[in-house]
User: Fold this.
Amino acid sequence: MDGKMGPELFVNYMLSQRLAVERDLRKILEAPKRRAWSSSPLVVNAFYGPSSNGLWIPAGILQSPFFDAANDDARNYGSLGMVLGHEMTHGFDDNGRRYDERGELHDWWHQGSIDRYEVKSQCIGDVFQKFSIDGRHVNGNYTMGEDIADSGGIKFSYQAFTTKKPRSLAEKRMFFTSFAQTWCSVERKKSAVSSVLTDTHAPNKFRVIGGLSQFAPFQEAFSCPTGAPMTPESRCSLW
Assistant:
């Protein structure tokens, strides 16, 4: 590799940062573009913007393991389908629910709906609050938005999956397995502890355990007895 790659990389990085600042300054004088992209097509992620009520799916995430046209659709629904449901649910999480259809911030819900929502969402927060890594507990209130989005993502993707056509037991199990495998990762303990303290997402392990343990069709698909670690007697359900 050319020895000049390092210096050139730094110069290019600084140039990209300068151009980004200049672009942002120009935008101050322009009318807002509600559908403007805020990321690169190469990004392996998906986004929901409450102020524009928009959903963005970069090309980068439309590949394995999230999506593959060669996969059976149980895998695709369990992975990318859940991600899309997750992002759509952000429009109704503890922050997104405060924005209306035009992305304007104001209280547009009836107080009774808000009261019930807060009780049900706190139930989800309490579930994740019990998880810990090396004695550090997940802050269920801090991760609540992402946990709510996971809960909705699993439910809505599974509903789409089972509504499309009748599904076999094996297909249903593959749906849940695909969801779990999507978030499978290896992480150093220090990094995991750091994520507990700083990340708005719960650690991947707990996203899987917390999400599936609160979803009744998971218990049905794997015939788990009520009261087992992944099948509590009572569950949290927001939507």
